[in-house]
Design goal:
Elements (H helix, E strand, L loop, with lengths): L3 E2 L9 E3 L23 H4 L5 H8 L4 E3 L2 H7 L7 E3 L1 H7 L4 E6 L10 H13 L4 E6 L3 H13 L2 E7 H6 L1 H9 L3 E5 L5 H9 L7 H13 L4 E3 L6 H6 L2 H13 L5 E5 L4 H15 L5 E7 L9 E6 L8 E6 L21 H8 L4 E5 L1 H15 L5 H19 L5 E6 L7 H8 L10 H8 L8
Helix pairs in contact: 3-5, 4-15, 5-6, 6-8, 9-10, 12-13, 15-16
Length: about 450
């Protein structure tokens, strides 16, 4: 039996897939945080290069990938697809489990797929420096790597709790030449306002985004770079699903269910959106996003307009949100800490094209250890949610007497996350379910929007 399915470099996708072209109705407009009116290209120009703004608003089904970006992607793409036969044996399932492995990238996750594209377009338009945020560090390290490839300086505002828990991610970013600050900092008005209320704040992605956006907006030579949520980011990640479709053909099977972990939505979008096109065109395939119970934006969040950051500096988008003032619990070890979901993913969920499920972190780490002991790869804690979902789908199929073809995205390795595994193996991890009451409270602080 074949273990891995490989594609040659000349089969790196030549176009990104833009699902906006295939939606029955357009997404809700993106609104200016000040005027509450739909934004135009000029409103986004202080943050993004024009090529990225055009992609964000594009309705074209296929967007060409520049040769310079494809050459950068060739450092690790196409990524392999594996048949997880040893995992199947370990859990005793009759189902066929496949995983697309994005941990082969230089930074060890799927994030460079969009980082190299964003760095290229910024460099082409004369930008000198990029400012960004990061939680667990996968995005920050990916942009640091991409900045080094294209000769850009990179400033990273890293969520303080992650900055303290993941020192080697910090070192990784600095090795690639980035400067890294624990957020909230005293370097921005946004950071200072948070520290004035809570000098010991653990930070959040929403806060770090506020700081990075402020940095970019107040420096003419600097633009903002985002690792998830927005349309262009989700589109850049579709190289994952486009490759996986070709590799599943090599395997002679088509998935009954496609699974990925979900934080902001880039990883899930990457593998799921090309299959969502198949579903729109009549294919029978389920698309399942797996998230933590401690940050359940899809399963508990409200589908409404909200800021993308904590302070209210970013455009307002319609998404599943826990509220922009959401603060993830410090005991949460698995990443995926963002308060909202990508507008595209949120719309697909609202229309019933995708499903969502939430798991506690102990069950996810148990699944990750089972996977590591059978397949050999130590997964990123984020990816463990997808592994948990894949195992649950296999068990359900077994209980129904069915054989299911399951495909999930293993979004990265966990080599920089061993402190979290130490906690799990020592029995110190706690499950936490974010309370519905906290969501309802945050809904009172949403921006007032009238369309």
């Amino acid at each position: 039996m074949t273990t891995k399915y490989l594609l040659p470099e000349d089969q790196i996708p030549r176009h990104w897939y833009n699902i906006l072209a295939d939606l029955k109705t357009p997404p809700a407009p993106v609104l200016h945080p000040g005027t509450k009116k739909p934004v135009g290209p000029q409103d986004l120009a202080p943050l993004f290069p024009m090529a990225i703004i055009e992609q964000e608003m594009s309705g074209k089904r296929e967007v060409p990938i520049p040769d310079e970006v494809r050459n950068a992607l060739a450092l690790w793409r196409p990524s392999p697809l594996f048949r997880a036969t040893r995992l199947e044996q370990a859990i005793g399932t009759r189902s066929h489990i496949y995983y697309k492995y994005e941990g082969v990238s230089p930074s060890g996750s799927h994030k460079p797929n969009t980082a190299v594209a964003q760095a290229y377009y910024n460099k082409k338009e004369g930008v000198r420096r990029l400012a960004t945020e990061t939680g667990a560090g996968q995005w920050g390290s990916s942009l640091a790597f991409a900045g080094q490839l294209f000769g850009l300086e990179v400033t990273v505002y890293m969520v303080r709790i992650s900055y303290e828990q993941k020192p080697y991610r910090r070192s990784m970013m600095k090795t690639w030449g980035a400067e890294v600050f624990p957020s909230p900092t005293d370097k921005t008005n946004a950071g200072r306002s948070i520290l004035a209320k809570d000098p010991r704040s653990n930070g959040s992605l929403g806060i770090a985004i506020s700081e990075a956006v402020e940095d970019a907006a107040t420096h003419d030579d600097t633009k903002y770079s985002l690792g998830s949520v927005l349309n262009h980011v989700c589109m850049h990640q579709t190289v994952i699903g486009l490759e996986a479709q070709q590799q599943m053909k090599l395997a002679g099977e088509y998935p009954d269910v496609v699974i990925a972990c979900h934080g902001g939505g880039s990883n899930f979008s990457g593998i799921a959106l090309p299959f969502a096109r198949d579903k729109i065109n009549g294919k029978q395939v389920r698309l399942l996003a797996a998230e933590p119970t401690s940050c359940p934006s899809l399963t508990k969040g409200k589908y409404t307009f909200d800021y993308g950051d904590t302070v209210g500096m970013t455009p307002i988008v319609k998404m599943h949100t826990l509220g922009h003032d959401f603060m993830p619990p410090g005991i949460h070890a698995g990443g995926l800490r963002y308060h909202g979901a990508a507008p595209l993913v949120s719309k697909l969920l609202d229309e019933g094209l995708i499903e969502a499920v939430a798991y506690g972190q102990r069950g996810c780490f148990e699944a990750a250890v089972t996977f590591a002991r059978s397949e050999g790869v130590i997964p990123a804690p984020e990816s463990s949610h997808a592994i948990k979902a894949a195992i649950e789908e296999a068990r359900k199929a077994d209980a129904e007497g069915r054989t299911r073809v399951i495909l999930f995205n293993l979004s990265g390795h966990g080599h920089f996350d061993m402190a979290a595994y130490d906690q799990y193996l020592a029995g110190k991890l706690e499950d936490f379910e974010y309370p519905s009451e906290a969501v309802e409270k945050s809904m009172k602080n949403l921006p007032q929007v009238q369309l």
